[in-house]
Amino acid sequence: MKKYLTYFLAGTAMYFGFVGLGYAETTVSAEVQYIFNTLLFLISGVLVMWMAAGFAMLESGLVTSKSVSAICAKNIGLYSIAGLMFWVVGYNLAYGIPEGGYIGSFTAWSDASAIDTGYSDGSDWFFQMVFCATTVSIVSGTLAERIKIWPFFLFAAILTGFIYPIEMGWQWGGGWLSAIGFSDFAGSTLVHAAGGAAALAGAIVLGPRIGRFGAKGEVKPLEPFAASSVPLATLGVFILWMGWFGFNGGSQLAAGTLEDITSVATIFINTNIAAAGGVMTAAILSRLIGGKTDVILMLNGAIAGLVAITAEPLAPSPLLAIVIGSIGGAVMFFSTKLLFSLKIDDVVGAIPAHFFAGIWGTLAVPMSNSDTNFSSQFIGVLAVTIFVFIVSLIVWKILAATTGIRISKDAEKLGTDRAEIGVIAYGIRD
Fold it and tell me: Looking at residue 9, what is its pLDDT?
């Protein structure tokens, strides 16, 4: 009992101790730091896992009512696939990379926890796994309403087991991007732009939904493609927003000192106000340019602001965080228009909010982090996005040529709920 009381008192002193007007210079044992660091990973990981629900709700709300059950099936399936694949091979592909190298080992994860690592190996695996799941979640919504579910699951297995672990290991695993000074604090490029690149490749191979664009490329009227539930999509964004505090805050990777826990608080603030900046920028632009205050663009503005600040949520001042998030919202707005002009059908707007905003956020890192430079950031963005796009494009084309990836025209008109799942989400149809 005395032992645990000592830990409690030490932790209390660590978080709340003051001397005069400044922080107490408290040094706690390695074991106590191990405990607090592990708790940060576990709690943050649970928050990021909750983002899976956010993606499911956002996508369910933005698809038509005849494709909601399929979205739910894809999201719970992809999360499960990510968990299995990241354990079987993904983790060691990322973290088994030789210093400055390119690829790790094709072996399953195993626990090697030790006090001198500073945290439980299992907590780190869990935290990194939910990042992996987030990457493939981005792909799901873009390809909704016309993709077969099992080819999508096959792609999810390849992305989470091989493509994502390799590229994220280039920086977070101590690979070659880390060696040249590339910095991506919590994954604007490694997670979000990468997921967006995979989604873009899939959208190109898959093609748009039937009737989405006119003969001259014009976007068809809203009604045939109306969102099934804007309230559900809004709930999804708020869940994602909440989960992002774990996404960015947990990426501090430590909570065992006063400096670390203070940094986590700073990250929370910058994350929140960057998202707010993205929302309001999207609202203003949609009103000024489109004549209406588009709630869907506001929702994606929040995501774009969150994605943009993710590359460096600690170093910026609050004002700069707002600027970064606001520009992220603007990038999302104009890249949405770009996709329309290119006849690329992204059902939920994931490519503008994750791919383009992620690139912007990564390139903006040198604005606040003096340890980085534009050239290394540019090289990192190019390397990750080109690698993921090309490999994903090859995989999508192979799947299209073998299993087929697109449902039939009749099935698309019927809806993926009936054609692919056999369960309808709503008793009353549009």
Answer: 42
